[in-house]
Amino acid sequence: MDKEWVLVLKEELNKPYMKELGKFLRAEYSKKNIYPPKNEIFKSFFKTPLSKVKAVIIGQDPYHGKNQANGLAFSVSDDVLIPPSLKNIFKELKDDLFIEIPKKGNLEKWAEEGVLLLNSTLTVREKEPKSHYNMGWEIFTDKIVEILANKEDPIVFLLWGKSAKDKINNVKNLISQKKHLILTAAHPSFYSAHNFFGCRHFSKTNEFLKIHNKKEINWQIS
């Protein structure tokens, strides 16, 4: 985890619920196939330091297929087939900004551009979506959203689907009092992508950043 995040999360990381979560995860990783790998759980906080955050995309939990999750919401490693939801994200990106659909689904370049790719829970059992819900991760990621909402620099919250929208309800009033922008759309999954397409969140994010004299995000990853 980047030192900026460590500094603001030091107290949170030492709370009893995080210690219990740690015990749970040690047991899970020793007995089951858990994703992402242990060394990538906090990858989003390594790739996107707090001071560099321009936008945050909130997902549900990591991909639960073998070797898919790499610690960044919606992202997969270079040698993994692009999942349907990410394909739809890339399709919207092409329609919005005319960026050709990438052949790989690794979103590390977005993270390095200042896009925090945050899942509501940071771990999951293989083939068991939401299997690590209600174990403490939601409390931790609520704290992350609160920290972002309190940032003085304007940032954009991209909320795709009900889980992401629910995630932010606790601090929505706080965000509305700041300079931040909230963008909402349906989840880009197969079932709801027809309501995701046309949201134009990529161009809207850059328009907002430009208005606030911040460098626009380069959404191209290849």
The counted number of beta strands is 6
The Rg value, from CA coordinates, equals: 17 Å
Instruction: Give the SSE string.
Output: HHEHEHHEEHEHHEHH
Low-pLDDT parts are none
Mean pLDDT: 94
Order of strands across the main sheet = 3-2-5-6
**Biggest β-sheet description:** 4 strands, parallel
What level of helicity do the residues show? 40-55%
Strand content: 5-15%
Distance between the termini: 25 Å
Secondary structural class: alpha/beta
Gross geometry: globular
How many individual helices? 10
Descriptive keywords:
single chain, 222 residues, alpha/beta, two-stranded antiparallel ribbon, globular
Topology, element by element:
Elements: H1 3-13, H2 16-31, E1 34-35, H3 43-47, E2 55-59, H4 84-97, H5 108-113, E3 115-119, E4 124-125, H6 137-149, E5 156-160, H7 162-168, H8 172-176, E6 181-185, H9 193-196, H10 201-211
Parallel strand pairs: 2-3, 2-5, 5-6
Antiparallel strand pairs: 1-4
